[in-house]
């Protein structure tokens, strides 16, 4: 269940003096104002305000959001390749397909991150289009992974659905941050 953003703001103000991971005021203001309209605002705020790298510009936030997505996708990939085995043939096939989908997701998020790190004025629009396309494709891969488990019951499906849904949520927020960066046309690069 998502915490309403206004409650998140109150919690932030009450805890900001005691939180070691908090950014200076301006960074948290940017994070808060940037996350307010994200698909998952409380998740956006939580993940970006605890991010250890820079978060001072829309570009920083877009990169941080993609890094969060990539990190979570890597964790799912590790989970899939080291800790999960399917019981039925159908489940094993779905898991194998999901490993491939998450691998593609990681590739697309990695390309996105590289594109965001090397933005140039003359190619900004093209680069942003690439980033938007790649993150959208990553979201599609995540959905496709879950689709493979249609008609399969059990703990593997349930556990994987939670993990993939989390990656999809942070990826959706990353796409939102990329769209915000595109709308700003790269100001504050």
Report what the structure shows.
There is one protein chain. This protein is mostly helical and 189 residues long. It contains seven helices and no strands. Helix 4 packs antiparallel against helix 5, helix 4 (58-82) runs antiparallel to helix 7 (155-183) and helix 5 (89-117) packs antiparallel against helix 6 (124-147). Mean pLDDT is 85; it is low at 5-23.
Summarize the structure.
Helices cover 73% and strands 0% of the residues. The chain is mainly α and 189 residues long. It has one domain (24-187): Up-down Bundle (Butyryl-CoA Dehydrogenase, subunit A, domain 3).
Q: What's the end-to-end separation, in Å?
A: 35 Å
Q: Which architecture name does CATH use?
A: Up-down Bundle
- The domain count comes to 1
Question: Segments where pLDDT lies below 50 for 5+ residues?
Answer: 5-23
The average pLDDT value, as a whole number, equals 85
Structural class, from helix and strand content?
mainly alpha
Order of helices and strands: HHHHHHH
Overall number of strands: 0
Nearest-angstrom radius of gyration? 18 Å
- Percent in helix: over 70%
Shape: elongated
Oligomeric assembly: single chain
What CATH calls the topology is: Butyryl-CoA Dehydrogenase, subunit A, domain 3
The level 1 CATH classification is Mainly Alpha
* Continuous helix count: 7
Largest sheet: none
Keywords: Apoplast, Disulfide bond, Secreted, Signal
Family: Belongs to the PMEI family.
Protein name: Pectinesterase inhibitor domain-containing protein
Signal peptide: 1-20
